[in-house]
């Protein structure tokens, strides 16, 4: 089990190097971990897995009902949905199949619903159903006035995106993958039949290379001499509302999509909050993950119409993520057999949903580039801490508390996080290195007080738990 | 479900009065109730130390004019008074939610999950400050963003400093408390920033009135805050720390989970449930919260007496 964050990288060549430990890179590392003969490195520029686009999204597992039929994305989202829902159940990843409602707010939108239902059928989803006004308001009594009807899409689910990425990484590392953090790739050159990566932590050799660099995928692709796509980051700002808002909404509430995109949604989260967003702003700066007054105002305007009472609740987080959009409408997953190189590009907003299917697809492409995958041996299953609001918290489980009183010692009161859970996270296979990393793993200080009550103690526990690190 | 996943299903433990929160209001209410012979009076405190906010206000200004005390001294005084009167104080115990039927709460603590029922409940759950996200301040999400509560605990409970240069948002008394605490722990105070057009200035601390914080800057660690003055002029104040002070909000989760709203006096919309302290007056001082707790205790005694009549 190896996770490194400093010092030089191992000199022995790897069979495969994956650049980018986002949800796609980690899913691929997990898939390759099923092939025990392979030596795999997962190389990440930041200090944690899932630190880019993967940490700041809408946390929805899409069924793919509204994908463009016939595209690679449509196929992989549909396949990925099946794989991920099964994996979440097996690994303790919080997931709620709340279903979605595409809400029509005018006659034109209502008229568009049958067409969307037809598209869903072409994507293999036959269970969508039209709801009249009465049934819509019966299902969503807090919906703002003026909605005419909706298309119900069962199966659309919400998930914990952080646990998902972490579960993939944990399983891969336990099965032998080397995860190298804080290793930003600067150059790539040919090295015999393989690749020589120069990173901020020195060089690394690999016979096969996978580019899962997300926002940086075009830059890395160009380092290898390809000019296939350009990433234009599309910023999505989101507001997270307090858990006390959770009873206001039962489904993922989607607008009827327009040419401008999927629009602003209101959705419950598995952590018991309510999400409002995202915006869709095309930018050029790949580091512009800041929220703006205009973005927040726009979201509040949209949210006020959909769920007026939501605006009376406290916001517990404002965040912004950048989708790795390109000039291509579909995924851009390309094998370069002569170069033993696979690019995973243009995964702009469905990477979480499709991650496991992308991983399986890329593994096939790696074989096409000459990689001998060797035999399959399923890695040991992982059991992740369930951060879902519907599961009892560890402090509420008498057997657990009796066996270890640290689970009864609540540190973060808003989110009911115990000292035992914080201790476990700090000792985990892929441990956090920052307060944010700890928050994503445990929910500590993610609640309404944002550390007013608990922040000092959480910081102290983190300091103690990472004291051995440098 | 494995047995250890099962929530506790044992019968509720009966009490006469359950007080939620061992701050000035809760401790004072408990002391008065226990002294007046209200029966089994128990105070639940989710924190490891009783006293509420004063417990980590490591400076003077508490108590009375004749007997000035620091926050921790004041917290100890109230704690001792409640215990001497016979109230049972349990720290490290969190009330999670209401249990079905009667006045009963689900709790967790060192003894594990438990349900506690009482003839009367006093909610004295206190306050929090409105943190940065709830103020909808745009920008990045760097480290170095605090409330006064977190600042005071970091400095007074753990002996840590928080940064080198700090901007304090707010200009009320609590903002000056934050500024004093920052300076005492070795952090330079760049300015106090307030949207108010008038505020009480104190020598030695630059005060920017009519000024709004419009953006937090910096990746990883805060590098500055962007502000806009009322005349439309903007500027950046370089700093690695920002403290959002004041805007006290009631910690009303338990009240709201029970569908309970405050009513005149210390009563609430639910018979037998009373509210006191910051929950009903979030801007009040510790001593006011204590007086509030005392008044709530009187209401509870009245309620218990009425109940005794009813059951006769």
TrEMBL record, chain A:
Domain of life, source organism: Bacteria
Every FAD dependent oxidoreductase domain range: 15-363
Gene3D superfamilies: BFD-like [2Fe-2S]-binding domain (1.10.10.1100), D-Amino Acid Oxidase, subunit A, domain 2 (3.30.9.10), FAD/NAD(P)-binding domain (3.50.50.60)
Annotated ranges, domain BFD-like [2Fe-2S]-binding: 410-464
Organism this protein belongs to: Streptomyces pyxinicus
Name of the protein: FAD-dependent oxidoreductase
């Amino acid at each position: 089990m190896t996770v490194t964050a400093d010092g030089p990288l191992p000199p022995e060549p790897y069979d495969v190097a994956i650049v980018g430990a986002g949800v796609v890179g980690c899913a691929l590392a997990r898939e390759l971990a099923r092939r025990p003969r392979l030596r795999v490195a997962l190389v990440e520029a930041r200090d944690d897995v899932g630190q880019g686009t993967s940490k700041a999204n809408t946390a929805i597992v899409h069924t793919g009902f509204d994908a463009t039929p016939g595209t690679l994305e449509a196929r992989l989202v549909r396949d990925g949905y099946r794989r991920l829902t099964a994996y979440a159940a097996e690994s303790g990843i919080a997931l709620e199949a709340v279903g979605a409602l595409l809400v029509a707010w005018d006659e034109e939108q209502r008229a568009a619903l049958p067409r969307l239902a037809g598209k869903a059928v072409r994507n293999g989803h036959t269970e969508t159903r039209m709801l009249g006004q009465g049934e819509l308001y019966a299902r969503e009594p807090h919906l703002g006035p003026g909605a005419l009807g909706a298309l119900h899409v069962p199966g659309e689910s919400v998930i914990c995106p952080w646990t998902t990425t972490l579960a993939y990484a944990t399983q891969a590392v336990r099965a032998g993958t080397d995860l190298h953090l804080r290793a930003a790739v600067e150059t790539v050159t040919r090295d015999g039949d393989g690749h020589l990566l120069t990173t901020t932590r020195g060089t690394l050799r690999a016979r096969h290379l996978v580019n899962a660099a997300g926002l940086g995928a075009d830059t890395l692709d160009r380092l290898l001499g390809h000019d296939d796509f350009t990433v234009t980051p599309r910023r999505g700002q989101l507001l997270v509302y307090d858990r006390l808002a959770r009873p206001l909404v039962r489904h993922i509430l989607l607008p009827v999509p327009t040419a401008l995109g999927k629009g602003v949604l209101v959705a419950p989260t598995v952590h018991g909050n309510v999400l409002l967003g995202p915006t869709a702003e095309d930018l050029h700066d790949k580091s512009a993950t800041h929220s703006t007054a205009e973005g927040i105002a726009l979201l509040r305007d949209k949210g006020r119409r959909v769920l007026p009472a939501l605006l009376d609740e406290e916001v517990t987080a404002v965040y912004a993520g950048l989708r790795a959009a390109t000039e291509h409408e579909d995924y851009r997953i390309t094998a370069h057999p002569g170069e033993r190189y696979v690019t995973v590009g243009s995964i702009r907003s469905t990477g979480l949903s499709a991650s496991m299917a992308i991983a399986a697809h890329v593994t096939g492409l790696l074989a096409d580039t000459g990689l001998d995958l060797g035999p399959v041996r399923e890695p040991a299953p992982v059991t992740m801490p369930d951060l879902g609001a519907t599961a009892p918290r560890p402090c509420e489980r008498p057997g657990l508390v009796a066996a270890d009183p640290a689970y009864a010692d609540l540190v973060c009161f808003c989110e009911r996080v115990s000292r035992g859970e914080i201790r476990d996270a700090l000792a985990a296979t892929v441990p956090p290195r920052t307060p944010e990393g700890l928050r994503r793993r445990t929910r500590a200080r993610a609640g309404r007080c944002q550390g007013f009550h608990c922040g000092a103690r959480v910081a102290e526990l983190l300091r103690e738990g990472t004291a051995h690190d440098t | 479900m494995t047995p250890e996943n099962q929530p506790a299903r044992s019968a509720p433990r009966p009490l006469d009065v359950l007080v939620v929160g061992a701050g000035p209001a809760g401790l004072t209410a408990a002391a008065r109730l226990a002294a007046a012979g209200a029966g089994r009076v128990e105070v639940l405190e989710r924190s490891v130390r009783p006293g509420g906010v004063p417990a980590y206000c490591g400076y003077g200004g508490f108590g009375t004019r004749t007997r000035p005390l620091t926050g921790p001294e004041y917290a100890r005084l109230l704690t001792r008074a409640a215990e001497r009167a016979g109230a049972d104080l349990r720290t490290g115990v969190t009330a999670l939610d209401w249990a079905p039927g009667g006045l009963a709460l689900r709790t967790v603590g060192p003894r594990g999950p438990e349900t506690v029922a009482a003839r009367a409940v006093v909610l004295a759950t206190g306050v929090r400050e409105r943190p940065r996200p709830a103020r909808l301040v745009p920008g990045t999400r760097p480290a170095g963003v605090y409330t006064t509560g977190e600042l005071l605990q970091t400095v007074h409970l753990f002996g840590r400093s928080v940064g080198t240069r700090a901007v304090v948002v707010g200009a009320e008394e609590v903002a000056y408390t934050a500024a004093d605490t920052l300076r005492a722990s070795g952090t330079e105070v760049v300015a106090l920033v307030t949207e108010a057009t008038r505020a009480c200035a104190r020598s030695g601390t630059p005060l920017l009135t009519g000024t709004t914080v419009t953006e937090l800057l910096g990746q990883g660690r805060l590098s500055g805050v962007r502000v806009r003055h009322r005349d439309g002029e903007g500027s950046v104040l370089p700093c690695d720390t920002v403290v959002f002070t004041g805007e006290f909000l009631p910690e009303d989760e338990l009240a709201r989970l029970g569908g309970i709203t405050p009513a005149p006096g210390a009563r609430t919309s639910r018979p037998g449930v009373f509210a006191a302290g910051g929950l009903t007056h979030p801007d009040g001082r510790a001593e006011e919260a204590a007086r509030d707790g005392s008044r709530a205790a009187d209401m509870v005694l009245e309620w218990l007496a009425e109940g005794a009549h009813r059951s006769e």
